[in-house]
C-alpha cells in the first residue's frame, strides 16, 4: 500500500521449539523461514540471544546467524540481540568480524544489556562477576574501537573484525536504552513484542535527544511487534492462541514447547495473570490484511517508526509463512 512504501519490514526469530519437534527440525525451519521471507522482500532476519530456556534455541546466536546467512543470499542477518554483558567485547568483535568476512555487508549487530535469561544462569555466563555497575556505553565504545581500522596499532586487535562493516543497533525495552542510543547516534530497536509499556515514551526520547554521528545522520527506529496474520480475523485470533500461551508460560514460569491452538489452556489463567498477559502483548497485530492495514496505519502514524520487525509465534509452519506473506503484501 502507498502509505507503507517507505517502511521497511523485517523478522525477529527466537528459534522456538514446537511440541513434537527435534532441535534439528527447529533449526531447519528457521532457515526455511529466512529463505521464504528473503524472497518476499523482507529487509533483515534477526535472531535473539536467550539461555536456559527449553523452548528457545537461539543461545549460540552468532553460530545461528552464520547458518542462516550461509543458507540465504541477500537478506541482512543479525542479532536482536547479542546480550553484551554475557560476552567480552573482543570475542563479539571476532565473531561478527568473522561473519562479515564470510557474508560481506549482510551482518547486523543488535546489542542489548539484559541477560536474556535468569539471574543464576547470567552469573555463570558472566563468570561470577558483579555486573551491578556494568557500563554498557563503555563496552559499546570498546567494541567500536575493535572494529575500527585505527585499532591496528593496538596491542590487542580483533582479527577478524578490524575494519569490518558491521552496523550496530541499540536494543531496548525501557527509556534508559533510548537515551543511550540517542547519545551514541545509533539506530534504536525497541522490544515492543514483550515489553510495550514504555514504547511511545522511549521512541520520543530517542528522537528528541538524538545526536548525529559518523554512523547515522538522523534517528532510525525499529519497532518489534507481534504479528499474526491470516485470511480472516477469526483464523488469525485462533492461531494467536499459541503465542498467548507462550507468554502465559513465561508469567507462570512454565517453560515448554510451543503448542497448537487446540492444546492451549488460556482459560485457566487467573485475573491477575490475564492482566499481565494483556500488558505484555499490547503491541500485537492480529487479523486479516484489511484489519492489519488499518491498525498498522494508525500505529505508524502515531509512532513514526522507520521499520516494523515482526515476531510471529505460530505453531503451524504453513500458517506462519502465510502470515509473513500477508504482511509482505501489505507493505510492498
UniProtKB/TrEMBL annotation:
GO molecular function per UniProt: oxidoreductase activity, acting on paired donors, with incorporation or reduction of molecular oxygen
Entry's transmembrane regions: none
InterPro entries, per database record: Bact_Lucif_Oxidored, CmoO-like, Luciferase-like_dom, Luciferase-like_sf
Domain Luciferase-like positions: 11-252
Domain of life from the UniProt record: Bacteria
Pfam families, sorted: Bac_luciferase
GO cellular component term of the entry, any: cytosol
SUPFAM superfamilies reported in the protein's UniProt record: Bacterial luciferase-like (SSF51679)
PANTHER family linked to this entry: LUCIFERASE-LIKE MONOOXYGENASE
Family: To bacterial alkanal monooxygenase alpha and beta chains.
Protein name: Luciferase-like monooxygenase
Organism: Chishuiella changwenlii
Taxonomic lineage from the root: Bacteria, Pseudomonadati, Bacteroidota, Flavobacteriia, Flavobacteriales
